[in-house]
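Appendix B, example 12.
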Amino acid sequence: MLRNTVFLLILCILFIYLVDLFTINHNVISGNGNLGLLFMFPGLIIFLLFAYSIWICLGNLQLPTKTWMFISFGAFFLLLLFCYLEYTFVLQLIDSLGGTPEIETSKIYRYSWLNQYTNTLFINFFTLSIFISGVVLLRSFLRLK
C-alpha cells in the first residue's frame, strides 16, 4: 500500500507541474483556450486517490493515543499554515492580473474564475497540502475516539 501511495504522490506532483506548465503567464495574452483544463480534472481525481491512500495507510497504523494527539496538532498547524499560504498566493495572482473578473481593467475581465490564467489557483502544492493535512487531521481525530 505504501508503494501505491508514493506512486500517487509522484502523480500528484506531475499533474501540479502540468497544470502550471499549461497555465498562461499573466504577462502573456492568450487566445488559445484553456489547455490546463486537460490536466486539472484528472489531477483532481489523482488528488482524491492519493487522499484515499493516505486515509488507508493511517488507518493501518497502530500508534498510542498521545502520538495521535501530536499528529492532530501538527496536521492542524499545517492546515492553517497552508491555508494562509494559499490565501497569499491567490491575492498575489489576482493583483498581478489586475484584479478580479468584475474589474474592467483586469486581464481576466468577463472570464470565469477558472480560466487559462488562474488554473494554478485550484491545483497547486498549497491545495494538495491543504487537502492532505485535512485528511490527516480528520483521520487522527477519528483515531482519538
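The longest helix spans residues 65-96. The chain has a mean pLDDT of 90.
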